[in-house]
Amino acid sequence: MPEIYKIVEGILTLQQSNPLRLSGRANMNTLRDVLTQSERDGVALGHFNVANLVMVKAVFNAAVETHVPVLIGASEGERDFLGTRQLAVLVTSLREELDVEAFLNADHTHSLAKAVEAAKAGFDAVVIDFSALPFEENVARTKETVEAIKAINPAILAEGEIGDIGTGSEIHEQPQSGFKSLTTPEEAKQFVHSTGIDALAPAVGNMHGMLKSMVQGTTKKHLNIERISQIKRATGVFLTLHGGSGTDDDDFRRAIAAGINIIHINTELRVAWRQSLEESLGKNANEVAPYKILAPVVDSVKRVVSSRLRLFNAPRTNVAA
After folding, report:
1. Cβ proximity of 211 and 222 under 8 Å
2. Which of 38, 123, 267, 300 is placed for a possible disulfide with 245 were both Cys, Cβ 3.0 to 4.6 Å?
């Protein structure tokens, strides 16, 4: 085996055996610390999904530019593409080099095995998503997964999900049909109490993906702010807004004031990535150097992330009730 591969394998093995050792976290706030302070300050933590190095670099560059904490997410599909342990090592390396508060989340994890894999790799959080199952089965499987990942790392943040907000960070021609009713405060309280989760992702008018009209800027998503307030009062845990892309800016501000702590943005990044990549390729048909083609793509995605980070971290002032 070539020496470089032995070194990399040694690093990966070290992180798997002790997820906290590589990250330098003895000298930095935990994800829970950051969320607690953000809630006190009336701001929210931006969560941005990554699927390749371009997007990882863009999110880190935005965090450096805005000087605020950031949560980097990768779904099961994104982790399969990037490599779960490889992504964890990359994020650790950039976090230490750039000295930013960047945390790593295993987004929409649908099995115990995948959750355990992420916890062993050193992820800071896992979104345990059995929301497609009947409520009682969702409770049982979420509880089992919470116990398993906290046995690996007691500090890991476990998030559960209830309600239907559609699937896929994609562009839709029409609204997805078949949505269930909004999450109720009563079921949210029962779910949190029964599972032991640290954060809850409810259905409050949000949806995954964006309509084509949202990409064009002619329509926006709107949230049920009162329901967010009710769920926050009933549960007392951190609340996550999934499917944030395309949401009205004022709704974001009011949602944060009502109790939202983490906001997920994915489709907006994918749109910026594709549009800027097509533009870059079109500018010079003879360019074949990937780093030259992709440099403006990194910058385009970074601008989207920076814009959202500034919005989510603006002081909470003059917010309509």
Report:
1. no
2. 267
Residue whose pair of structure tokens reads 């779960």 in the numeric block: 84
> Concatenated DSSP letters for 199-214?
EEE--SS--SSEEHHH
Scanning the chain, the segments in alpha helix (DSSP H) are 3-17, 31-41, 53-66, 76-82, 84-98, 112-121, 135-152, 185-195, 212-216, 225-235, 249-258, 267-283, 290-312
Alpha carbons 197 and 152: distance in angstroms, whole number: 15
Spatial CA neighbour of 128 closest among 113, 114, 116, 110: 110
Q: Is the pLDDT of residue 8 over 50?
A: no
pLDDT tens profile 155-185:
999 999 998 776 665 555 566 555 557 999 9
The tokens describing 166, both together, are 């559609």
Q: Out of 67-71, 91-95, 305-309, 316-320, pick the least confident.
A: 316-320
Asked if pLDDT for residue 102 goes beyond 80, the answer is yes
Six token digits for residue 148:
């398993």
- Reported residue count of the chain is 321
Instruction: Return the SS3 of 177.
Output: coil
Neighbours of 77 (CB within 10 A): 12
Q: Residue 136: what residue type?
A: E
Separation of CA 167 from chain center: 15
How crowded is residue 92: how many other Cβ atoms within 10 Å of its Cβ?
A: 21
pLDDT at 317 over 80: no
Tell me what the mean pLDDT of segment 234-248 comes to: 93
